[in-house]
Write a structure and sequence with these properties.
The complex is a heterodimer of chains A (about 475) and B (about 210). Helices cover about 30% and strands about 15% of the residues of chain A. In chain A, strands 5-4-3-6-7 form a 5-stranded parallel sheet, with helices on one face. In chain A, strands 17-16-15-18-19 form a 5-stranded parallel sheet. By secondary structure, chain A is of the alpha/beta class. The longest helix of chain A has 17 residues. By secondary structure, chain B is α/β, with parallel strands linked by helices. Chain B has 7 helices and 8 strands; from the N terminus they run E-E-H-E-H-E-H-E-H-E-E-E-H-H-H.
Chain lengths: ~475, ~210
């Protein structure tokens, strides 16, 4: 009998081009997503070595990181961003790579556009010069972020030398309460594992809570895998995955579809497969989370208070917590719901999909943004924006006083003009609360779209369970 | 990539944990399309504090950086490695590293050396007390040494070591297996998606 395998083992073995003792395996890459920020130097490298792009037909480019989210028919005020976007256009033209450019309806955040058009499929290997590539793991794909040297490597060879990762099972049992979302699940997981608990591992998310999540919610969970240190996280494909993919532009059709459904169905970890690490969380006990510090692991339930650094178990974590509180301008013991906010950002590859906007809209409908808050909604892609407008969500947001923007990464990392001012406090649906992430001196609290919407109305954090 | 055999010199004691790549090089500098010139922007926000460790004259041009666990976590930006390299850092010693950062370092030729917490703490306090104190890292022997009085062995992936010692281009190594890539492509499933037809314009009607 053959050894029981994890999904990671199965995908890995299907992609090994070359294996040699003492060397990393050479893995074939099925899809390479490219954006303007981490690719210019890789294309320069190709030119310097007179190499070409091996498989432009397995490559897709878009502009997302530094595009303005305001009216794009106006000139871009930032010459450096303009240059970087122009350079990507030239590179895509010179190397024959399809580009979903700024006026293309399909333009958007790389990790949103690929799944929504059916390019992300189970069992694939997917890479991108962006750490949130783990998002695509929601479909049972092995997807991970790479640096620019590796971008160049994939462009030139369509392969990557990779050492086999360890595996980690994260099982979330039970059922989520009302008002508790996929964002809260992943924040609770990272709070448990710490920001480095997943280093060297690929995570498989399992259990009833994960099974019951929609595909978009699964993407939210897999998206933040890197914030717990693991480069990739995935979920076994199931009927929900197939249903999501059925009829999408790049999905197989006809007899090919039937054949792929059969192949995809085999992408489960076998009974008895061994993981290097396993953790179990009780989903019944997960509450809406709010980060209070400057790492995504520093979060508490919304009903809790800002923790006291003196309660930390090690000197190092005490110092880290003290530094974080100082940066965040918070006092230990403050109730989370007593924290007032200045800005709200709903969007990003974590929470910028249509379901996120629909859920935010249910909180916002008929309400007004607090007079002390400036709030914006940035759809993750042109398609998400179009869908939201068809459903009239944009009117709900605008009537409430939200700004309704063009798609892109926006204030998740503030490479475009969407940034926090020093000391401004933001309830954000993005993925990183690092110092200065959303603007130098800015203070980020990571939350779900529902929690961000409720905070926008109240002007401070609110336990959404009390208003739903 | 240039070959790395030995790093010798004093060390910058950056006594912080979970230093993310956003801190090493903030986003506003990622708009540059060059591969060099990032050193002056390294730790841009933290450097605004005159007392920040890299501002202290004693550590100017130190080729080694000491840090606490999970150094280089977060964003995949290789610009973080280029920034450290450009400010003269040739090796980072820490109890642990972010995966993508560590991988990026191995492609650029910057050594990431993982030592036990106690050893990092020792080196950290020594570098604080004795800023000019020399550390010698020998890649061939996989050792970190202070004179003849203190020595530790470190682990490194054998193939990464081979590449670093010889300054080998990863892409060149892979392309030596070009035939195998072609063979793999021949048997690769035809069901998998292609972006071949993705290029045509799908313009918004404004």
């Amino acid at each position: 009998m053959t050894q029981p395998q994890t999904i990671v083992d199965k995908i890995w073995e299907q992609h090994v081009v070359h294996a040699e003792q003492g060397k990393p395996d050479l893995l074939y890459i099925d899809l390479h997503l490219v954006h303007e920020v981490t690719s210019p130097q890789a294309f320069d490298g190709l030119r310097m070595t007179n190499r070409s792009v091996r498989r432009p037909d397995l490559t897709l480019a878009t502009v997302d990181h530094n595009v303005p989210t305001t009216d794009r028919t106006l000139p871009n005020p930032d010459p450096l961003s303009t240059q970087q976007i122009e350079v990507l256009r030239t590179n895509c033209k010179d190397f024959d790579i399809p580009l979903w450019d700024i006026f293309d309806l399909r333009q958007g955040i790389v990790h949103i556009i690929s799944p929504e058009h059916g390019l992300t499929q189970p069992g694939m290997t997917i890479v991108c010069g962006d750490s949130h590539t783990s998002t695509h793991g929601a479909f049972g794909a092995l997807a991970f972020g790479i640096g620019t040297s590796e971008v160049e490597h994939v462009l030139a060879t369509q392969t990557l030398p990779q050492s086999r990762p360890k595996t980690m099972s994260v099982e979330v049992t039970g059922e989520l309460g009302v008002g508790v979302t996929a964002k809260d699940v992943i924040l609770a997981i990272i709070q448990r594992t710490g920001v480095d608990g997943g280093v060297g591992h690929v995570i498989e998310y399992r259990g009833d809570v994960i099974r019951n999540l929609s595909m978009e919610e699964r993407m939210t969970v897999c998206n933040m895998t890197i914030e717990g240190g693991a480069r990739a996280g995935l979920i076994a494909p199931d009927e929900k995955t197939f249903e999501y993919l059925h009829g999408k532009e790049f999905s197989p059709s006809g007899l090919d579809w039937d054949q792929q459904i059969e192949n995809w169905g085999k992408l489960v970890s076998d009974e008895g497969a061994v993981f290097d690490q396993s953790i179990v969380l009780d989903g019944n006990n997960i509450a809406p989370h709010v980060t209070w510090g400057t790492t995504p692991a520093q979060s508490v339930p919304v009903s809790d208070v800002v923790p006291n650094p003196d309660d930390a178990t090690t000197a190092s974590s005490r110092e880290t917590a003290q530094r974080a509180l100082k940066y965040m301008g918070l006092e230990a013991g403050t109730a989370i719901t007593d924290i007032g906010i200045d800005r709200v950002f709903i969007g990003s590859c974590t929470n910028g999909r249509i379901e996120d906007l629909r859920r935010a809209a249910t909180i916002i409908e008929g309400q007004k943004v607090s007079s002390s808050v400036s709030a914006m909604i940035v759809p993750g892609s042109g398609k998400v924006k179009q869908q939201a407008e068809e459903e009239g969500l944009d009117l709900i947001f605008k009537d409430a006083g939200f700004e309704w923007r063009e798609p892109g990464c926006s204030m998740c990392l503030g490479m475009n003009p969407d940034i926090l001012l020093p000391q401004e406090r933001c309830a954000s649906t993005s993925n990183r609360n690092f110092e200065g992430r959303q603007g130098a001196g800015g203070r980020t609290h990571l939350v779900s779209p529902e929690m961000a919407a409720a905070a926008a109305i109240a002007g401070n954090f609110v336990d959404v369970r009390e208003i739903i | 990539m240039k070959a790395v055999k030995q790093v010798r010199g004093n060390a910058i004691p950056l006594n912080r944990a979970d230093v993310d790549t956003d801190q090493i090089i903030p986003k506003q500098f990622l708009k540059r399309i060059e591969r060099t010139g990032y050193g002056e922007f390294a730790f841009f926000d933290w450097r605004k504090d005159d007392d920040f460790i890299t501002n202290r004259i004693q550590y100017k041009d130190a080729p080694i950086m000491l840090a606490q666990q999970n150094f280089g976590c977060g964003s995949s930006r290789e610009h973080a490695v280029w920034a450290l390299e450009d400010m003269g850092v040739e090796a980072v010693i820490a109890p642990s590293f972010g995966d993508i950062f560590r991988n990026n370092c191995s492609k650029v030729g910057l050594l990431t050396i993982q030592l036990d917490q106690d050893d990092v703490d020792y080196l950290m306090s020594r570098a604080e007390e004795l800023p000019e104190g020399e550390i010698v890292i020998n890649l061939e022997n996989q050792t970190v040494m202070i004179g003849s009085e203190w020595s530790r062995q470190f682990k490194i992936d054998e193939f990464v070591k081979h590449r670093l010692l010889n300054g080998l281009d990863d892409i060149g190594i892979t392309l030596a297996n070009e035939q195998k890539i072609s063979s793999f492509e021949e048997i690769r499933s035809s069901f998998l998606p292609s972006t071949d037809q993705a290029g045509q314009d799908n313009l918004k009607i404004n």
